[in-house]
Amino acid sequence: MSIAQDWFEQHRPRFQQAQVACVERNCWSPFPETPGQYPDAPQAQAAGLAAFQAHLGGEQARRFALDQPGITGVLGAEVSPYTCKPLGIAYPHSDVDALFDAAGNAIDRWSQATVQERIGVLMEVVEVLFRDHLFELTQAVMHTAGQSFNMAYAGSGVNALDRAIEALVFAHQAQRAVTPHARWERQFGPSQITLDKTYRLVPRGVAVCFACASFPTWNAWPSMMASLATGNAVIVKPHPATILPMAISVRVFREVIAAAGFDPNLVTMALDTVEQPIGKVLVQHPKTAIVDFTGSVAFGQWVERNAYPALAFTETAGCNTVVLESADDLDAALRSLATTMCMFSAQMCTSPQNIYIPAGGVRTPGGLVALDEVGRRLAEAVAALGAAPKKAAMILATIQSDQTLALVRQLRDEGATRGTVLLEPRAYVHPDFPDARTCTPLMLQVGTGERDLYGAERFGPISFVIRCDDAADALGQATRDVAQFGGLTAFLYSTDEDFIARAETAYARAGAQLTVNLTGAMPLNFAAAYSDYHVTGLNPAGNASLTNLAFVASRFCISQSRRPVRAAQATSTAS
Amino acid sequence: MSIAQDWFEQHRPRFQQAQVACVERNCWSPFPETPGQYPDAPQAQAAGLAAFQAHLGGEQARRFALDQPGITGVLGAEVSPYTCKPLGIAYPHSDVDALFDAAGNAIDRWSQATVQERIGVLMEVVEVLFRDHLFELTQAVMHTAGQSFNMAYAGSGVNALDRAIEALVFAHQAQRAVTPHARWERQFGPSQITLDKTYRLVPRGVAVCFACASFPTWNAWPSMMASLATGNAVIVKPHPATILPMAISVRVFREVIAAAGFDPNLVTMALDTVEQPIGKVLVQHPKTAIVDFTGSVAFGQWVERNAYPALAFTETAGCNTVVLESADDLDAALRSLATTMCMFSAQMCTSPQNIYIPAGGVRTPGGLVALDEVGRRLAEAVAALGAAPKKAAMILATIQSDQTLALVRQLRDEGATRGTVLLEPRAYVHPDFPDARTCTPLMLQVGTGERDLYGAERFGPISFVIRCDDAADALGQATRDVAQFGGLTAFLYSTDEDFIARAETAYARAGAQLTVNLTGAMPLNFAAAYSDYHVTGLNPAGNASLTNLAFVASRFCISQSRRPVRAAQATSTAS
After folding, report:
1. pTM score, two decimals?
2. Tens of pLDDT along A188-206?
3. Quick one: B258 and B272 in the same domain?
4. A27 belongs to a structural domain
5. Residue in B308, B537, B550 nearest the CB of A305
6. Chain B residues inside the 8 Å CB shell of A538
7. ipTM greater than 0.90
8. Across chain A, what does the average pLDDT equal?
9. With contact defined as beta carbons under 8 Å apart, do A501 and A507 qualify?
10. What CATH number corresponds to the domain at position B406?
11. What is the tally of structural domains in chain B?
12. Spans in chain B with pLDDT lower than 50
């Protein structure tokens, strides 16, 4: 038995549980949800921290070892949002054509392996990432993307691994639907024709996978898995600000693939700088067959429009909306909203931004609560989270980019002239990292006349309380934002079942995943692998969904060969 | 029970058999293979002929009744390739925006029906087309596309209905993979969160389906089924030369859909003329969500490049290749090739065109047969088929377009100066239709230096015997044609198992469906629904395959809604 098949057998129980979870879409994960539940947690966390620190350079940059082809130099200028100091890591920079050539050469043997063998290798990648690198990745995500330790562990660690497994499940399902062999017999006039048919799964070719700055692994791992499981090679293009998590990932993929006897150049990394981006070159490279893109709406739409003849799978961003019509427990609703608005300083593609409230106020069991009061209480709830540094550190974490701080300042000033500043942004002092780049949320209250202000994703801790005519107007405005500007998530509070039903239909059509009347400890925008579909593909927030059959089914093609069965063969097979 | 669900129950046995056939890919069809096996064949054929004749106008065009929205006038200038006389049918011509608006309005209720209901309605469409219109369609295809009676019955009739059912099977499979409801429970810190989740299938919107002039139903029916089964509406755009088969189809779809209580504007027809085409307007209409295109490579590639944000599924054409390396029975191989080259005067996207033969000749049990002799014997076999008018009528049938005759003449003259004319084209006299537009095949023998002559699809009865260095060169040239110019089918004769294995790998990569060493009564390019995948999507001959999961999976999206389960609900559900 091949190593790959051996790994498949070893991971089969976990894979089968994942298959069931993807059908039933209930809550399941093979991984501990919190860092404290990780086996030998203190030791593992210390080892992960040490592994991360070993990557760091001092005055002189330290070279990250990655033995991929075509290396022409080094690149790397990452700065930790926690220390605001350079990480000092120099990554090998390869010639793009050399990467494509090597990837192209690696595909043949890989595509001739069985689906189970490919899944076996990739399930082993998941296992190695989890077992040997999770806290190293956690630190790497913290000090590039700027996430909190807990989010980096959960959201960028185990939950991202879950999404990776999920992609393997769907890749397996789509490929399993193709029978490898068939015998076909038919009468043509007086003669019987018997054909043996063979169906091969043929990969598209070389995939390019763009990872984003703020949440690199969560989208990139499933995309890589979807392409690799269907026989393709992948060139990973990390955001220049967030290379380390992907560099560690790429190295693990390469090591595991090589250990199984396949060509490690199935997975390589292409780098660029903010000043000299290579994104368009990669997308339009003649050997690019698939593009997975996570990042800005603008570049995502360019990718969708210009990737041809490559396939494009995009997940960008949008105006995630809230409609606050009525609530049984308004305070609980506002607390949940506040927490979700603060989570990683709203640098998530699922963070709510536009909060629509009827001018007449919000209905509660104690009567109508005026819009202004709702806005004030929401701002207070948000302020409370930013006031306690330890809580702020856990929830808000840091700001990934200076540009985001600049945007907050700009919108604060513009908002003050065109509406009301409900909450002034300020830096908070991180208890462990006093130099951390931080910012408590900016909240503005405006009318629907200021749509140009909120009618786009304003990346970072920026939100708008928007006065609407009434509940119907609120829903209409919110779903129009989604359809026009894109939207991944949506949040509704209402005690009116008719209104909820209308909202469900309207948001389903607009294509935002809706959460209704949720309060309590779960972040409203938490997306569970195996259960929550991420992005619908129905609006400008992206054309692909994590993960459904459409995410994998076109990454491979089916070639067939058929030939007559000789009488002798037909007999021997029948016997 | 709804009418639609009732129909599903009624057609369930047939549908389940089709599901099994799509997995096992063996030979199956619910329909009789030949016109003579049709129930009450003589009467049914007479009734079909009468129904066709009732469509025809005389001096004054007869209006085709189709009560779709936005009718502004009439169009129609079809000419029968059998009589070379106008059919005299005036079809209603609708304003494009009116069709899109009506289609958009029709989607809502249709998308809210269950998958089984939609499949039920569409299986009933299949049944009505078969039971009430098959011979009417057969005549309509003969007198527009120019196919023979037998091919119009089999290829454009029952086989096309099989492909339609096949598309329904895959649409069902892709949608069935999405569970409609899930309950999800997880601990967040001290609190238990229990969510009920609802997953909706949301169609993309309005699909535009282009049907081609020579084989309208075979591609259009499965495309229409794929879009409709996933909840979309379809606007059909027939080729101006071949409207009647699609007009009859559209009317049947509309009648059956209306009878089930849905809006018939789910299926409408948009018309244009050769002089004023509306193809680009339809593809780039802001409400177009899906484009299915069958036709020329040039427009197909334009569609793929310009359909964004609509999805594009294309099937165009290519250089279908033959490699003749060695044969146990060379005469049998040449007879099969000759028949296939003559079939419908090679006006099929699967017809062979470029025949690669080693300069040293073809190995046979009786020794090497020189290339020139192989060419001569192949030409003789082709000539024999064209010599007997009755046989010619059955196999060659007619030439759909005058342009094809012009191309034959042009290439005959060019070929004579750059190579050898192996077989001179000529008109043959059709025994039943003395005015039929006919042409026996042109065959040219050239060297690989004349690649510009054969390096594109030369639509019609035109083929090239191409002298290659040796077998490896023949395979290399042939698969290069496929990769560069596109190719759907490929044909290999070889007694060398190593060479066959190399050819299988090379053609699989290039993406042509290969038939090896087939001789006898089956046309080499016969593509069986439920068994043969048509088009791989790997080369310029098209990006979509009939039918796999990728053909259907992205035609719908998944929107979800989730909300907490109240304690009381949780209990009552559990009890």
Report:
1. 0.97
2. 988 899 999 999 999 999 9
3. yes
4. no
5. B308
6. 202, 204, 557, 559
7. yes
8. 96
9. no
10. 3.40.309.10
11. 2
12. 571-575
